[in-house]
Each structure stands twice: as C-alpha cells, then as structure tokens.
Amino acid sequence: MPEPEKDNRMIIDCHGHYTTAPRSLEDFRASQAAFFPDPAKLASLRPPVITDDQLRESIETGQLRIQRSRGVDLTIFSPRAAGMSHHIGDAKTSEAWSTVCNDLIHRICTLYPASFVGVCQLPQSPGTSPANCVAELTRCVEELGFIGCNLNPDPSGGHWKDPPITDRSWYPLYERMVELDVPAMIHVSASCNPAFHTSGAHYLNGDTSAFMQLVEGDLFRDFPTLKFIIPHGGGAVPYHWGRYRGLAQDLKRPPLAQHLLENVFFDTCVYHQKGIDLLTGVIPSRNVLFASEIIGAVQGIDPETGFHFDDTRRYIEAAPIDAASRTLIYEGNARRVYSRLDGWIERTDGHPNGCRLSPLASNRH
Amino acid sequence: MPEPEKDNRMIIDCHGHYTTAPRSLEDFRASQAAFFPDPAKLASLRPPVITDDQLRESIETGQLRIQRSRGVDLTIFSPRAAGMSHHIGDAKTSEAWSTVCNDLIHRICTLYPASFVGVCQLPQSPGTSPANCVAELTRCVEELGFIGCNLNPDPSGGHWKDPPITDRSWYPLYERMVELDVPAMIHVSASCNPAFHTSGAHYLNGDTSAFMQLVEGDLFRDFPTLKFIIPHGGGAVPYHWGRYRGLAQDLKRPPLAQHLLENVFFDTCVYHQKGIDLLTGVIPSRNVLFASEIIGAVQGIDPETGFHFDDTRRYIEAAPIDAASRTLIYEGNARRVYSRLDGWIERTDGHPNGCRLSPLASNRH
Q: What pLDDT, on a 0 to 100 scale, did the predictor assign at position B223?
C-alpha cells in the first residue's frame, strides 16, 4: 500500500462500539432479562460496579491499542450495537439499560477525551413511541457531551414490527435531534429471528431497508437539517446504486443526490478493497465517513492480504481517490455531520491521550 | 461500448418473469384473495380464460420485443415474482394459483420455444412444509418441460416466520430437486411488511439473508448437487465479500469457494456499470449468470447513460473481463446450472422464433 500522507489531518473513525466491557455489564443485562417483568425485582437491580482501572484495561488492551496501531486518532464511540437488544423487556428495561451503557461510554470518553467521543444508545422498545427517547438523548448530549445517537429502525430485533423511520411517530425524536444538532447512525441490534444472522444479514438488511424507506418518503422536506449515517457501507445500497436511482425515478422522487445526499451518509465498514473501491467510486466523497467497527463483526485476518478484514484504513489508502477526498472521508465529513465534534476536539486539544500524527503501523494485534 | 462479438454464442437471460399477463389473471387472483377462506366460493373459481392471441400480444409487445432488441436469445421464464405472494390465503390457494401461473408459462414456452424456457412458481404457504411443493415441481418439470423453480425463502411476505432454507423441513423439496436435476432461484415475493419496499429492500434482503443462512449451515454436505441461483447480483453479498469471507472464517466454516461456490450462483441484475464491475471482479466468472429481469423492478432510462437501467447486457459487454468469462456468463453457466436446458435447446433448435445471432440494437423500447 502507498505510504500514508504525514500531515495534520486527523483520522476519525465514526463507528466504534464498546464491545470489550467487563463481564459484570453482561451479568447486569442477564439479570434484567431474567427479572423481567417483575417490577420489584427489576427495581432491586443496581448498576454494575466497574472501576476506572477495569475500564482502562478493557480499552487499552482493546479498542485503543488497535486504533493507535492503525493511526486512528479519534473514535466516535457508542455502546455495543448487538447489546442494545431493544426487544428485551419493555421501555422501562430499555431506559435502565441505556443509562448504564451510556454512562460507561461517558466515563471512557472522560478518561480518554482525545481518543473517544460519545454517541448514545436510545431506550427504544417495540411498539413504544420514539418520543420516549428524547430525555435520554438530551441527557447524553447536554450533560455527557455526546455528539450523536444510534437509532434502531427495528426495535423488535428482526421482526420489523415498528413503522418505517419516515413515519410521523418518529418526529418527536427528530425534532429533538435537530434542536440539539446531532445526527443518528441507523443501526439495528441483535436479531432474535433465526432467519437473520445478526451481523451477516440483519445489519445489512437494516441499512438497505432504512435507505429505501428514505427513498420512498419525504422526511428531509420536514427536517432539512436532519442527518443520518448508514453504516456497513450502506448495506446493499451503493452496489445497487443504479437500482436506487432507477427506483427513485420510477417512484417520481427527485434524483437521489437532491432527495437524500444532503442528509444521508455512508460509513466505510466494508471489509475488502473492491468493496471500498465501489463505495468511493459511486458515492460522492462528501457523503462517506471513515469507519472500521473494530473488535466487531469480523475479527480475523484476511488470508488473502495478511491484514485484518476490518483494517479499513488500508483500503481507503489504496482506493483510487484524490487527497482531498481522502481528507473528507477521514476527517472533514465527520466534523461536518457530527456538528458538535469540533467543540469536543477543541476542548480536548493537547490532552495527553491524543495520538495525532501517529504513523500507520503494523496492525497485527 | 465495444462492439459485441458476433459468434455462435447464445445469450441466455436466466431471470425473466411474466409481468405483462392479461388483466384477467390479476382478476382471478383478486377473487382468490376475496373469497378466501370460503371453500365453496374458492371451488367455484375457474382459471382465467386467456387466448393464444392475448398471450402473443403480451409477449411480442413486451418481453420478446425487448429481449430481441438487446440480442438476448433465450429467457428462463417464470411467473411474476411479486405475484407469487405466498402469504395470501393458504396452501390450497397457493396450489391453485401456482397451477394457473405455471400453465401460462408453459403455453408461452410452447408458443416461443426458442425464446423462452420455463421455471415454475411453487405452491408455498407460510407455516406449511415445503414438501407440499413436490407434486407441482414434478408436474412442471416432467410434464411441462420446465428446468427449475423459484423458491421463496420467506413465504410470509416480509415477516420471516418460516425456518431458514437450511432447515430440514426443506429437505423433501431438495430431494426432489436433486432427483429431477433442477436448480432453484432463491426469490422472495411481494412484501406485505411496510418496513420493506418489495423491490427496493425485500428482494435484496432476501438474497442477503438466504446467502448468510447458507454460510451458517452445511446444506451442500447433505445435497452436494443441489444448486441455487441468488438473484439481483446476490443482494449485498458481493459488495460485502470480505465480510462474508471473514464471517465464514470466524464461524469456522470452510472458505466460501469450497463451502458454497460449487452450489451457489449469482445473476447479473445489477443496474449500473460499477456494480457489474464489482460483481464480475469479486465473484468467479463460473458463478455468474447473465440476467436482466426486464419489465421488472426498474423500467426507466438512466439519464446518465441514455439506456435502460435494466439493459444489463451493456454492462457485461463493458466489464473488464475476458471473452471466455463473458461466454460463461452469457451461456455456459446457465447450461451447466440448469442441467435440463441443453435438452430444451436441442429440441427447439431451428424453431422460427429463435433469434440467435441477432445483433445488439438500440434498446429504446
């Protein structure tokens, strides 16, 4: 691969989850699931006790080690996506669980402010109005300094029983997002439907389905500044960009660039060079945000390259795009889409945990 | 685009549906839906009366006109995919509907044997064993000369309530497919779930989900000669080929080439050049079958090219592949995967409706 440019550009990974939390977090969640729906037992549950040392160990041997080894400066960090599992319990269960998970993200971002910035899980629940998420979103942004949220378009976990994301029931949440000036990553959680493998089918289907809901709808007429990031390279969308352009035309929607691309962005969690080449060749550079989702869906080394499948920086470095596009993908777009990110970076500039200008090293972790 | 080679190669489109049937077919279906579940009223329903002239008109002004204009010789032809709607009624309703639809395909293939060869719809129904499809499959192959079937991995129409296609409940159907030596195209039908647009989400999700079910399972150990075609370019799969290779490795499955590629094939219903370039650059040529799905999901002209989105032959002609690969994609793979196709072609060789060697003309239909 070509030698990466050594400049002042930051590399921001917009898609990281806390997948290495201490076991006690999982135990808490298992108790929640076991105690549901008994209100007395649920009320007796206390948040797991996790020390700063435990957090540091889980991060320094996990995400931080890998992101440093790959020259990634800052990760936009949220609770484990599959762990959200909004289908477990009810809205109250989801509220308690979201609080615990988001508080842990806040503590990590406080310990390593130059390396992690927070995005929250929302207390969604099947059949419950997304309005119930407004309070937790507000708390996370205003009190914890978070810069966005993850929005699950299918809280039922693979049964798709809730209305499309263009439905008016979502509007109270969108109104608050716009007021707070934070985007959402559209990210489903674990599948409890045996037809869908979580990361091999449900995630990609969620991305594809949400995008098509946006094609059909007219959401950004009502919310011109609302912004969504569709992860995993947009599911099937860029590969089928001709189909989507054609469907939009047949459905009498405006051209996609005008209909959606001021508001919809794709991440780079596509784990091979040709996929990244397609993504960056089809989708305008200003709509692509660097991401890896490390310690995530695919953790092994690609025998064809000798590097980790999820080492997406290598693919971006090798993609046939110009330097300006690469800078947008690594940094500029993240700063624009996550409008509150600049403020976070200014506040943390010079923090000893920062790793700006760190070289791209071997990633054999 | 380069001038296509003028040789004796056939161009076989493996993915065509009878989407232009006379209105009386739709009326019959509407009556079925309206009469369900009243057995007396359903029994009173007679198949729609459609004359040969009506069939000829619908075909000659529709599929046949377009396929000739694009130099396609033969289409592997089946009932309208969205029309299957296995979620309507019950197994008996599906049986009656499948018989009517398959008989129409048979009549078209009898009228135009050099241009169309049949693939059948199966009388699937949610919660009903796929074993109930064996009789209709047998009838279509042995009596009507069909060479394959379309298998719906989600008869519930977007609710995904049936077991994965690797489940043993499917085995009686697979046993018969193997005995008859016919493959299945894995193709969902209309979505009755508002979360999924039929051709913009559900189709691609169906492709992606079925592939991942095959990654997780071990179906071809039990059926080493069973063959599946995954349409719409494989949904999200080739774009995420690295993810799938990595997931297979993490799940301790054999490498995909060994695990699936003797049995799983992708069609070329990808409606832009860069998508086809990805497909043909990632998936071995022997696993790709030419297809367009004309008068289908996307019917307009691409303003960026001036040609129809679904004129996939243009993309295959322009793809950076060698002549041998192109011949496999156009003809060789279809003959190999649809093992009974050679017999059909031999029987119909010299038929006046054949259009071998027709040039690639303007496709402004």
A: 98
In a domain, B269, yes or no: yes
DSSP string over A331-362: IIHHHHHSTTHHHHHHHHTT-TT--TT-----
Across residues A198-214, what is the average pLDDT? 98
How many structural domains are present in chain B?
1
Q: Is residue A130 part of a domain?
A: yes
- Catalytic, B3? Answer no
Residue A363, domain member (yes or no): no
Domain that holds residue B243: 12-348
Asked if the model's pLDDT at residue B362 lies above 50, the reply is no
CA Rg value for chain B: 19
Among A167, A192, A239, A258, pick the best mutation site for testing chain B contact (most B Cβ within 10 A): A239
ipTM score for this prediction: 0.95
Cβ atoms of A10 and A76 within 8 Å: the answer is no
User: Which residue from B minimizes the CA distance to A206?
Assistant: B205
Structure tokens at A201: 């089918």
User: CA-to-CA distance for A323 and A329, rounded, in angstroms?
Assistant: 10
Q: How far is CA A68 from the centre of its chain?
A: 19
What CATH number is given to the structural domain containing A186?
Answer: 3.20.20.140
pTM of this prediction?
A: 0.95
Average pLDDT rounded to a whole number, residues B12-22: 98
Cα angle B216-B219-B224, degrees, rounded to a multiple of 5: 140
How does residue A9 score in pLDDT terms, banded at 50, 70 and 90?
Answer: confident
CB contact under 8 A, B200 and A215: yes
In a domain, A110, yes or no: yes
